Predict the structure of Glucose-6-phosphate isomerase.
Amino acid sequence: MTIRYRFENSLYENVGDKGLKYDDILSYAKENLERHHKDLLEKRKNKTLGFFDLPYDKELVNKINELKKKYINIKNVVVIGIGGSSLGNITLNDAINGVYHNDRDTGLPKIYFADNVDPEKMAHLLEILDPKETVFNVITKSGSTAETMTNFMVLYDFLQENAPEKIKENLIITTDKENGNLVKIAAKLGLDTFVVPYNVGGRFSVLSSVGLVPAALTGVDIEKLLQGAADMDKICSVCDIEKNPAYMAALIHYLLYRDKDVNINVLMPYADNLASLSDWFRQLWAESLGKIDNKGKNVGITPAKSVGAIDQHSQVQLYIEGPFDKLITFIEVEKFRNTVKIPEVFTEIKGLNYLCGQTLDTLINNEKKATEIALTSANRPNTSIILPVIDEYHVGQLFYMLEVMTAFAGELFNIDAFDQPGVEAGKVATYALMGREGYESKRKEIEKELKNKKQREM
Ligand code: PA5
């Protein structure tokens, strides 16, 4: 089974002037699709873009399977990374193992994420962990991100204090082959090391060693995940707008932005275990597409996170009566892995008994349908991604489709979807403020700027 993309509610026929005419989509595609498709294909062929080929790295899968044998009895996995070096991992864990994974008795290792440099969260993590029973996977492509390196230093020191004999055994490094500080540390300590391919950006790296190592250690079937992605690759390689859901979705977003001022992209899964997918997607979409285009224009569609049915009681009022600036994309799960029956209790109460005997799965899917109907009646463009079931195979498909959609949107916007100068600027300012060697003049520049600024504080 394959995930599907439904888009009729983004069209004129269902939402009037706020939507797109199907013929306009087709005629844009007729004129431009081949050119953009060729550009992407060329970047894939000449290895500028490595994410396309991640599903086929058998050697990596074998290496991870070997590593897994070493950690059969391990109790915890800690991922030390941030942004593209952690959001995909959180998504994978939540989607496949579920948001309550750490509290369930599954026999699988628990997983923790040291992403932010929040002192309270880190103090609590140190309280929870038994260093002798914990594997630490430090993930940073650049090998120098301040947050990741700081968290690594704290946890390394914790290991040194409490279980120095485990340092070599329980530390895994995932980083660039040769650049950055981490690869040097790994070599010096003789640690197990995985490579982040040079041509795969952080936010496109979930199907590389970045996402696969922690996932495999916590029971996720990475072969099925990659198989899903590979099968989606076949679908998303077709240069036909009516057969390629990634291209169609990107084009709908682009044309709604260009012609209808739709500049907010809401991803709204109706499943708690997919809530963090929206966080992963926010980074993918925002960092890839929030750019200055080839004519010097600032472009981008702001991604927003929403979770159904929770946000029906929080955001949907705005979606229905607020500005016409959003395209809502629902994710619907066709068949949940669990079903919970609504019990036959309070049957005498009229306003409640309609629920008796039904299931939570029917309710949540009807809530999605109801929101879709309400939005469409209010002429609010919306689309749906339909996931047959939340499992490795379909989550692999979903990751891959959303990545191709983002890459293709980059072509439509005429921008480089694969750099992140804005993020780098923030990293440099942090280095300067924290006194890193080589950043002295940047620090002076910042200090001068701050001094000249009139403070307004209340
Ligand atoms: O997508 C990106 O490249 C970034 O957002 C990175 O994932 C993030 O900044 C972390 O970088 P690194 O993996 O180098 O620590």
